[in-house]
Structure formats: structure tokens, C-alpha cells
Amino acid sequence: MMTKDTWIGKVHHGDCLDVMKVIPSDSVDLIITSPPYADARSHTYGGIKPEEYVEWFCDRGEEIHRILKPTGSFVLNIKEKAVDGERHTYVLDLILALKRQIGFRWVEEYVWHKTTSAPGKWKYRFRDAWERIIHFSKTKDIKMRQDAVKVPIGDWTETRLRNMSDNDRERRESATSSKIGRRIEAWEGRKTVYPSNVLHRPPVCHNTGHSAAFPEWLPEFFIKLFTDEGDVVLDPFLGSGTTFRVAQKMGRNPVGIEIKKEYVQEERILL
After folding, report:
1. Which residue of 76, 100, 110, 213 is 20 to 30 Å from 186, comparing CA positions?
2. Taking the complete model, does pTM exceed 0.70, yes or no?
3. pLDDT tens for residues 131-142?
4. Could you tell me the end-to-end alpha-carbon distance of the chain, in angstroms, rounded to an integer?
5. Is residue 127, in this structure, part of any structural domain at all?
6. Are residues 36 and 165 in the same domain?
């Protein structure tokens, strides 16, 4: 096993399966990554066939589970592909395998709505404007700093509250008799609220030298949500190094693993 001084704050070249094996157990606060999608980026990473993807990833998932702290989180950005005119199930199969075989808890699923998705036309589908961001953990008691990611409530609340009667403001039961309580007056005076699990953000990346670069807002949001300053943040499929740079700027201890040597050697990763 590597000592803390030899693996934290560094970018490691190699297959993450091999590198993670020498990282101590229960030592990483947040693992956030977007691995190569099935059959995608074949000119960069060779491509993994959809029918082989679950087995390939679960080998690495076992190490991710081992090195993650009991209070830590694993955030996975991934998307299905279409095969022979229908969506392949490899992502759904992977979620179930990570839960049932590896032992992860499937805490939440975020939808990344790509507000500036590229136009296009396909025979049976519309353009892809969303991706999955899946949150896993080892235990029920995870670190989560929800106040750190609050968003502005918006001007719409003032208009809505102004047009409501006192009875509407105080009503606690849903008008549909769903027994889901609510209290509209609780919105008064609020400037910020907790975000939803639909993240409306553009897929804009500052680093265009990589075939699948992360937009900076994505790791920044989850680093704020699941870590404190000084915590360890790992991206085992580092690519262009966005997660590493963002984590470092936010006062966390970044760790990156990248199999392509040319990316590791470039200045945009090694700060």
C-alpha cells in the first residue's frame, strides 16, 4: 500500500484497476468520475463493448468500494447507447450489479439536463439532452453538505405568494388528496432553496483538447455537496484533469488516475 504522501495530491499513470489496488482501504471521501461509455471514444481508449461493460467496470467497482470511506460518496456520470434501434441496458445492468454484487447503496440519481445539447436527427429518437449522474455510498451515514449547494429561489415566488389567499398560504394538504403536506407560507422571505435532482447546466468545457472533458461545474457541485476542505477527492478516469484542478482550487486533496500517458504528461493536468 502507498503511504499518504505518495498518492494524495498526485496524478497517477496507469489502469485505475491496478493503481487503486495500492490505495489504502477506507481512505477516499469522494470518488467522482465519468468512465469511457460503451463503444465510445474508441480512438482514445479502445472502447468497451456493451455486453462486456458490466464485468469490466465491476472489477474496478470492487476497488472503488474498498477505498471509499464509510461516510464517502461515489458519483458516476454515464449514459446508455442505442444498439440496433433500441437503448442498450448496460447502464441499468451496471447499477444493479454495483448494488447487488459489489454492495453499494444506490442513494440517488441526478439528471443532467444539457441546456445546449447539439442538434441532430435520428430515425426513432430525438436528440440526447440529458445524462445520468448516479450517487452510490457504502453506508447509510454519509457526509452531505446540502447547504453548500443552495440556489437562488427566483422572483417567481413573490408573484405567486402575492396572488394567494391566506387560506392557500396556510394549506398543508395537497389539493389532489395525495396526503403529501405542504406549507406555501414557508417560502416567504427565503432567498435560497435546496436544488432539485435535475441539474440544468450546459455541457461547456474549458478544456477542448480531450475527447470527453468534464464541464467544471459538475465536479464542483458534488465536491461542495459531499466533502469538506482537506478531504480526498479521486477521479479514477481523469482524462483532461478537470476534477483534479477543481478539487485543488476548492482546497481538497485531489487524486487522479489516467491510463493515457500523454494526458498525464500535459501541463493542464500536472499543476
Report:
1. 110
2. yes
3. 999 999 999 999
4. 25
5. yes
6. no
Residue 271 forms part of a structural domain: no
Beta-carbon neighbour count of residue 128 at 10 Å?
15
Q: Helix, strand, or coil here: 26? A: coil
The residues, any chain, with a CB within 8 Å of residue 14's CB and separated by 6 or more, are 257, 259
Q: Which residues pair with 200 in a beta bridge?
A: 113
* Residue 233 and residue 199 share a domain: yes
The span from the CA of 38 to the CA of 234, in Å, is 22
Same domain, 187 and 212: no
What the block records as the C-alpha cell of 1 is 500500500
> 51 and 178 share a domain?
no
The answer to whether residues 165 and 48 belong to one domain is no
- For residues 97 and 137, state if they share a domain: yes
Cell triple for residue 245? 484542478
Same domain, residue pair 187 and 240: no
- pLDDT for the residue numbered 119: 80
Question: Does 14 reside within a domain?
Answer: yes
Residues in the chain: 271
CATH number of domain containing 114 = 3.40.50.150
User: What are the E-state strand segments in the chain?
Assistant: 11-13, 28-33, 68-78, 82-83, 86-87, 105-114, 130-137, 151-152, 192-193, 198-201, 232-235, 253-258
Q: In what order do the strands lie in the sheet with 105-114?
A: 11-13, 253-258, 232-235, 28-33, 68-78, 130-137, 105-114, 198-201
pLDDT digits (tens, 9 = 90+) for 34-58: 998 786 554 544 578 899 999 999 9
d(CA 243, CA 232): 12
Identity of the amino acid at 39: D
205 in Cβ contact with 227 (< 8 Å): no
Same domain as 122, residue 30: yes
Dist CA 113 CA 258 (whole Å): 27
Amino acid in position 86: E
